[in-house]
Amino acid sequence: MVLEFVEVGVPGSELVLKGFPRGSLIVIRGAPGTGKTVFAATFLHEGALKYGDPGLYVSFGENKEKFYGFMRGFGMDFEKLEERGLFRYLSLPTLLENGVGGLLMEILESADSMKAKRLVIDPFTTISRAFKDETEARAFLHTLLSNIVGRLGCVALLVKEELGPGTGYGFEDYVADALICLKAVRLEDRLLREMSFLKTRGIETRSPDICVTLHGGFKMLPRQRVPRPPSSPSFNPPQDPPGAYTTGIPELDEELGGFPHDSIILWEIDPRLSFHEYSLAVAPALASFLAKNRPYIVLPSAGVTWRDVRDLYVKYYGISEDKLSNLLNVLTMGPIEAEPPPYVKLLKGRSWQEIFEEFAEIVHSLARERGRHIVRLIGADTLMATFGENTFKFLDRWVGCFKETGGLAMWVVKPVHPRLVRMLSPMVDMHLKVTKKHGCILLYGKKPETPLYALQPDPEKNALVPRITPIL
Questions:
Q1: Structural domain count of the chain
Q2: pLDDT tens for residues 147-202?
Q3: SS3 for the chain, per residue?
Q4: In the structure, what pLDDT confidence band is assigned to residue 41 with cuts at 50, 70 and 90?
């Protein structure tokens, strides 16, 4: 038997699972405030809007007007769907007094009359408390499955409340075709929402655990892969905010106000992230400097070569080799080929003081020629691997040099040396962290503090620029 699938319709779900089997029973559970009702409402709203599936919402709690007003805040207009005959809200808080039989009859008649293809019962926990015993619970689910789900080819979603830690599984969890759990946890005191597919009978999921958000409605944030370079890369940098340089990401400029002139930015990078993954957050600001004909000096982080730097800006942002030769300075302390490009410069000093003097001379020379608008990026972990504890002396002196020339400075730290992050954070103007959870790339500010943001490559851009989605 070949299963027929119903598109879930929730934004991002198409990248996680094929859909729910037609005629299936889905249980979604979670503690209060985890987004169960918003997910269920989105399932009905998008099903009606995108696929013309009539949806029935059975509620044992709030009234219709309150539900409609709440969902308008998430961009869902159920009143319009109701006018079109694609949605019905069934409020049944009093029918439980008449027993489960009367309740079931009301649901059956409503589903039949509108030929419902999607059904939500919220919360199913309320009904389960009214059952006399497990036999009555089994009878209810059997009738629901055979007379609505099976006969109408309807997907039924039961919303179940978790009342506390260690809440056990009920009969409905074992009968269901899929069991989905929503959680709200903390990541360094910031709200992180998660969805876990605990059971998926006949449903192949590409990501059993994913991050989600309620920003603008329920959205799934599946695992991200940095795309291949576009065939014709092009990058139009955003305007600089007043008194600042653009981050290269308009939404981040709105949150932070850009990177202030003459400021030092600390990028704390989760070591699990690849160069291209964390470049999704870091590189747009640097590409903006190059696109605006401003010099860029870089001492790459550990594991990053001058070729990686070149390929990033040529292949993902369309910066020409000629422009790189004119603006880019890649500094290295290790051996290089006999004839590297002119923008690759070998630092020949043997001590941290000698390396610092070489670095400072390059910066001062560029400042004399081109003015203060220079960005420099230092892989602090590279310094740590070379100079050990003297790295702090190098960077302390480097701060004084930077204040003389101005522009923008970035330090990239991969916290294989946790003390390095702790020591550098008080010295900088901004401290941003890029990490990964369930394959989703996350960004947040530690100084100043910001919420969590999910970074996803923007498919509408011909450059490596992310869409930023707040996790709310």
A1: 2
A2: 677 788 899 999 998 866 656 677 777 888 899 999 999 999 999 999 999 988 87
A3: CCCCEECCCCCCHHHCECCEECCCEEEEEECCCCCHHHHHHHHHHHHHHHHCCCEEEEECCCCHHHHHHHHHCCCCCHHHHHHCCCEEEEECCCHHHHCHHHHHHHHHHHHHHHCCCEEEEECHHHHHHHCCCHHHHHHHHHHHHHHHHHHHCCEEEEEEECCCCCCCCCHHHHHCCEEEEEEEEEECCEEEEEEEEEEECCCCECCCEEEEECCCCCEEECCCCCCCCCCCCCCCCCCCCCCEECCCCHHHHHHHCCEECCEEEEEEECCCCCHHHHHHHHHHHHHHHHHCCCCEEEECCCCCCHHHHHHHHHHHHCCCHHHHHHHEEEEECCCCCCCCCCCEEECCCCCHHHHHHHHHHHHHHHHHHHCCCCEEEEEHHHHHHHHCCHHHHHHHHHHHHHHHHCCEEEEEECCCCHHHHHHHHHHCCEEEEEEEECCEEEEEEEECECCCEEEEECCCCCCCCEEEEECC
A4: very high
Q: Do residues 402 and 454 both lie within one domain?
A: yes
Question: CATH number for the domain including 108?
Answer: 3.40.50.300
Question: In the predicted model, what is the mean pLDDT of residues 81-102?
Answer: 78
Q: What is the mean pLDDT of residues 17-31?
A: 91
Q: Is residue 466 part of a domain?
A: yes
pLDDT at 1 over 60: no
292 and 206 belong to one structural domain: no
Residues 327 and 379 in one domain: yes
Whether 231 is in a domain gets the answer no
Domain span including residue 157: 5-221
pTM: 0.91
Average pLDDT value for residue range 422-430: 92
Shared domain check, 420 and 348: yes
